[in-house]
Amino acid sequence: TLDGQGHTICNLNSAFIEKLGENSILKNITFKQVDLKEKFGLFYENNGKIQSISVKNVNVKNMNIEDIYKCGVIVKENYGKVEDCTVRDADINTDLKVVAITGVNEDGSIIDCSVSNADIKGSSAGVGGVCGESESGIIKSCTVKNSDLLGNNAIGGILGLSRSGDVRDCSVKD
Q1: pLDDT at position 62, please?
Q2: Per-residue pLDDT, 109
Q3: I want to staple 122 with a disulfide (CB 3.0 to 4.6 A). Which of 108, 110, 127, 167 is the partner?
Q4: How confident is the model at residue 59 (pLDDT cuts 50, 70, 90)?
């Protein structure tokens, strides 16, 4: 378990942790002034639990990496749990499948997460506020507020593209 105890990490421009293992827990950290240009998000793969992570003032621009077609500001691929996480004041514009929280949810859970004041633009199918593509799993009690999303197809306030899984008690507000 890595408990950030509410501390803030500033001016990050690459992934924080590439892979979070099955029994791992990362919680209570704020990231500010995040500028991602060469990576997929703060975490590449989550198999554990990411809890109470806040990301403020995010800039994701011109991210076009060979063999990487999806990007989540917090996590690219979720197989575990993402709970009570927020992304605020984000400017995301890439040629990828993009979202503020999780790129792809693969049998994981995304619960009580929120996105606010985000401008999200992607040219690949699967542009969403919370999740770009859901293969399975659950997205529950998530909110997207005051955010604009733009893409070519499969665009949604909460979820861009759903192959299977469950979305419950979520809302999109101006």
Answers
A1: 56
A2: 97
A3: 127
A4: confident
Contact 159, 127 (CB under 8 A): no
29 CB-contact burial (10 Å; exposed 0-12 / middle 13-18 / buried 19+): buried
| Token reading at 62 | 């011109």
Going from the C-alpha of 49 to that of each of 15, 16, 83, 151, the distances in angstroms are 17, 15, 8, 29
> Do the Cβ atoms of 57 and 95 come closer than 8 Å?
no
Predicted local distance difference test score (pLDDT) of residue 51: 96
Tokens of 53: 């992570």
**Count of Cβ atoms closer than 10 Å to residue 135 Cβ:** 17
Distance (Å, whole) CA 20 – CA 96: 23
Q: Is the pLDDT of residue 63 over 70?
A: no
* Stated pTM of the model: 0.92
pLDDT at 67: 43
Residue written as tokens 């554990």?
48
For residue 98, give both structure tokens: 């993009």
Yes or no: say if 119 and 59 are a contact pair by the CB < 8 Å rule.
no
